[in-house]
Amino acid sequence: MRTAAACTRGKRKTLFLDGPRERAGDPPQNSRALIFRIPINRVNWTTSSFLIGTFVLTLTAVPLYLWHFGIDWFHLAVFAVLLAANGFSITLGYHRLFSHMTFRAKLPVRLFTLIFGAAAFENSVLMWASEHRRHHKHVDHEEDPYDITKGFFHAHIGWLLFKLLPQPPFDNVADLKKDPLVMWQHRHIHLLAVMMSFVLPTLAGFLWDGWVGALGGFLIGGVAKVVVLQHGTFLINSACHSIGRQPYSTRCSARDSFFMALFTFGEGYHNYHHEFQHDYRNGVKPWEWDPTKWLIWILSKLGLTSGLRRVPQQTIYSAQTHLRALRRAKR
Ligand SMILES: [Zn+2]
Ligand SMILES: [Zn+2]
């Protein structure tokens, strides 16, 4: 991913979740810059500091706070509410609405997911969708930003810690660039992220219990929530390309996993998603755990979403029977 500035002015700066990777044909890394095989000259310091800093704070400051001040149900409630609001904004908004356009949404849904999605510190929807569309187009190949063939760590978080040189072209989101709301979010992504992710829970905590409450709101509703949310998203790129079944296709590494769906608001049925990316459902069977599809469906009954795209049942059935026949033939 690149920065808002990089996108609009063609000039690169570093943002929180910048995307990296070295490409085939790049000049070899300066050996003096390599310490313990870490390409120092490609470290994305801003992104790395944020990801590592919030992770360390969650493992140290959060338990210390809880040990010293005890568990307050209010902080747990803020954590849960914001985790749900930010998480669904990523899965329903960033992913299924803006990246894949699997349904249409009215202004309140679009605005909500843009504002609360920013709080995930996963960059603007414009940048996120650009990376994600490239992932689908080039999955398991060099141009895939989170290519699992480079290893679990790279697909999970490594691709964010190191800069990709040169930057890939930003040429697959022309439709989103025409959306004034998307561009508004893109221009103000830094401010929105800080306000919605950190200032909001800190302020809520202060109103609840003064400065002690504010600190709890910041650490639990802000820092810990961001870490849980981000690693949930990262698991889709790493674990969902490593763990699970492939009932619909073996064309790529994507896999279906109920277990992963539990941690990813239903995005764990990744084999189905890669085969039928324009379906608003990831867990296509009625019983499959996909709260994002249920929320999209409920919103459609309220008139807030429409045009929910479904792959015909016969097409899905054909894909499964074709794969079963191939597997039988191989035995
Ligand atoms: Zn997708
Ligand atoms: Zn994928």
Describe this structure in words.
With 331 residues, this protein is mainly alpha-helical. The protein has one domain (31-330). Helices cover 59% and strands 4% of the residues. Strands 1-5 form a two-stranded parallel sheet. A two-stranded antiparallel sheet has the order 2-3. It has a two-stranded antiparallel ribbon with strand order 4-6. Helix 4 (107-118) crosses helix 9 (189-237). The longest helix is centred in the middle third of the chain and has 49 residues, at 189-237. It is globular, with a radius of gyration of 20 Å. Residues 1-35 have low confidence and may be disordered. The chain binds zinc ion (2 copies).
Task: Give the topology.
Blueprint: H1 4-9, E1 21-22, E2 34-35, E3 38-39, H2 45-69, H3 73-99, E4 104-105, H4 107-118, H5 125-137, H6 152-161, E5 164-165, H7 174-177, H8 180-187, H9 189-237, H10 258-263, H11 270-275, H12 291-301, E6 305-306, H13 313-330
Parallel strand pairs: 1-5
Antiparallel strand pairs: 2-3, 4-6
Bound molecules: zinc ion (2 copies).
One zinc ion (ZN) is lined by residues 135, 241, 254, 270, 274.
Helix content: 55-70%
CA(first)-CA(last) distance: 43 Å
Spans with pLDDT under 50 lasting ≥5 residues? 1-35
Structural class: mainly alpha
Largest sheet: 2 strands, parallel
Radius of gyration: 20 Å
Number of E-state strands: 6
Task: Compute the number of structural domains.
Answer: 1
The small-molecule ligands in this entry are: zinc ion
Instruction: Give the strand order of the largest sheet, numbering strands 1, 2, ... along the chain.
Output: 1-5
Shape: globular
- Mean pLDDT value: 88
SSE pattern: HEEEHHEHHHEHHHHHHEH
Structure annotation, total helices = 13
* % residues in beta strands: under 5%
